[in-house]
Amino acid sequence: MRIDVVTIFPDYLAPLDLSLVGKARDSGLLDLRVHDLRDWTTDRHRTVDDTPYGGGAGMVMKPDVWGAALDDITGSEVERPAHLVVPSPAGHLFDQRMAARLADDPWLVFACGRYEGIDARVMADARRRVRVSEVSIGDYVLGGGEAAALVIIEAVTRLLPGVVGNPDSLVEESHGTDGLLEYPVYTKPPSWRGLDVPEVLLSGHHARVARWRRDQALRLTAERRPDLVARLDPDALDGRDREV
Length: 244
Ligand code: ADE
What we know:
Layout: E1 2-7, H1 19-26, E2 31-36, E3 49-50, E4 60-61, H2 63-74, E5 83-93, H3 96-103, E6 107-111, H4 120-126, E7 131-136, H5 146-157, H6 168-171, E8 191-192, E9 195-196, H7 206-224, H8 226-230, H9 239-243
Parallel strand pairs: 1-2, 1-6, 5-6, 5-7
Antiparallel strand pairs: 3-4, 8-9
Helix pairs in contact: 2-4, 3-5
């Protein structure tokens, strides 16, 4: 997969050299390129923003600079269709399902806005040529799209085939396919600071362990995320689930 990120703070994306995403890049599974938007400015001050039409606080990012950057980047390959992702608090809410869909795209281009956002014509114009998705990572306001792009890129990269060593760990996790939060996990020692690992996990009895984990996941989800319980497929629940 190819990912391009356009930002006025390229250094903000430095963590993409590390850990899981860094390894995916090193192994060639991910071709990730970070661009400085100011490289497409034409004035001496390298200006990327201007005052908003209609008045109001803050500044808006200029369409001409963004247009030139996105033309160059998205026009740089003919074979692969680019999907432009614009992080925005006004976007569609990002979740694991969206991460899985984005992981199927061959090429994502992130346009990270700052200030009050990017002139809306940039997205309208890009839609004439490529897919465009405005995406929010949650109901709060960040200083810009960079932190959101980091979140989305990590969630997407770990779903690329070959990136996570044991694909089973992608199935049994919070927001995995069963729609539940993940059960609590433990490792050695069996007793630590007076707290014991639940007996059933030491039993070696696979069916009982599976039932305990499912009960824990159901309880935790009901307590912390009742909205997720309401969305569970009733056909996917068994008789024991209903007792929890
Ligand atoms: N930019 C500012 N806030 C954001 C959010 N919550 N999600 C995505 N991009 C953002």
